[in-house]
Amino acid sequence: MNAVLLREKVSELFRGHPAVRLAYLFGSQVTGDTGPMSDYDVAVLIEDSADGPVLQAMLMDDLSRCLETAAVDVVLLNGASVELAYAAIAQGVLLFERDVATRVEYEADVMSRYCDYLPVLRAQREDILRGGNYARRVQWYRAALERTQRTLDEIRVCGITGRDSSLHSE
């Protein structure tokens, strides 16, 4: 089934779930690498207040009925890894958006986080290709993260206790 027909089929379904903000089709159905074991991979962004696991199960059931196949996998973008979120928006097809502003804001945030994370991904890939010690790299990143966290904590403390209260008493 092509993406346009799929979008038409499922858009009404997503409209019936008010907590669904965005939905993307990604994976083999988009890349064309489908085989007998291929499923429909659907990434969904929901409102933070929604019960994720319950809604995820409902969406899988509803999509399975709508698409007339049990080969449906629903992934919640809330809390998903930056790699997964980036793959869904960069290589996937938008199936549904509740509003444009949410989509633009979410996609910009994911792209920004992905670009920030890209050097780490490249280093991991290089380590794997070279057969390097990935554990050593992880330790290095953890130490760097801890140093950054300490610095941020110091800045926050200085920002709270180091303010000149006379400047803020107007």
Can you describe what's shown?
- By secondary structure, the protein is α+β, with helices and mostly antiparallel strands.
- It folds into two domains: 108 residues, Beta Polymerase, domain 2 (2-Layer Sandwich); 25 residues.
- The protein is 60% helix and 14% strand.
- It is built from six helices and four strands.
- It has a four-stranded mixed β-sheet with strand order 3-2-1-4, with helices on both faces.
- Helix 3 links the parallel strand 2 and strand 3.
- Helix 1 packs across helix 3 and helix 4 crosses helix 5.
- The longest helix has 31 residues.
- The C terminus is likely disordered.
Order of helices and strands: HEHEHEHEHH
Reading off the top of the CATH hierarchy, the class of the largest domain is best stated as Alpha Beta
Main sheet record: 4 strands, mixed
- Domain unit count: 2
Mean pLDDT: 85
Task: Chart the SSEs and their pairings.
Elements: H1 3-15, E1 20-26, H2 28-31, E2 40-46, H3 52-67, E3 72-76, H4 82-91, E4 93-97, H5 100-130, H6 134-161
Parallel strand pairs: 2-3
Antiparallel strand pairs: 1-2, 1-4
Helix pairs in contact: 1-3, 4-5
